[in-house]
Each structure stands twice: as structure tokens, then as C-alpha cells.
């Protein structure tokens, strides 16, 4: 089982991920990022690429997809929190996202294109 990140490792590894839009959630000891793609098809293609990566690495994210939005979390369940597997996976996932918009304020409401197009109704 991988080891949890030490405080020194967190100080080293998490800030660059934060610049890329990953937020550390201390309540779940996870990394989270929200992408907004131009369409459902682009979001689904991204999810498919991430799924193949996850299978290759045997390290699977928790995610939610609503039309063009992908809300993804990484944590190492077997270790009970963040490990290097998560930080390495985050960097690899970023290479798959293309030019998607990143919702940096993770406390803001997440609204997909269909909600925006239909006046707030999905």
C-alpha cells in the first residue's frame, strides 16, 4: 500500500497542482478539479481517456459528469488519503483535458451548458 503524503511532500507537490486548478479538500484528503468542456461529447471523450489511464495505472478517480462538466476527485482509498499516486495521476489527467475551462472556485455552483441554455432548468 502506498504511503500517505508527508507534510513536506504536501508542501512540495500540492502548490503546482493548485496552479493548474486542483484543489486540496482536507475533509476528504483528496484532490478535486472541475472542467467545463464545449460539449457532452468532449466531456465524454475526456472521461474515456481518463478511464483508460486509470485502468493502466490501477488507480481510479471518483467523478461526476453533468452534460459538459466533469467534477473529478483523486484519493488513494486503500491508504485513507493522498499519496503520490494521486499527485502523479492529477498531472497525467491534466495532459488529457485539452483546452477545457477549469472552474477554479470549487465552492461556486456547478452549472452545465444545458442549465445555462434553458434558464437554470436542466
TrEMBL record:
Q: Which InterPro entries match?
A: PCD_sf (IPR036428), Pterin_deHydtase (IPR001533)
**Keyword tags:** Lyase
Q: What is its EC number?
A: 4.2.1.96
- Which top EC class is named for this enzyme in its record? lyase
Under the heading Gene3D superfamilies, the entry gives: Transcriptional coactivator/pterin dehydratase (3.30.1360.20)
Q: Which reaction does it catalyse?
A: (4aS,6R)-4a-hydroxy-L-erythro-5,6,7,8-tetrahydrobiopterin = (6R)-L-erythro-6,7-dihydrobiopterin + H2O
The protein's superkingdom reads Bacteria
Q: Which family does it belong to?
A: Belongs to the pterin-4-alpha-carbinolamine dehydratase family.
Q: What is this protein called?
A: Putative pterin-4-alpha-carbinolamine dehydratase
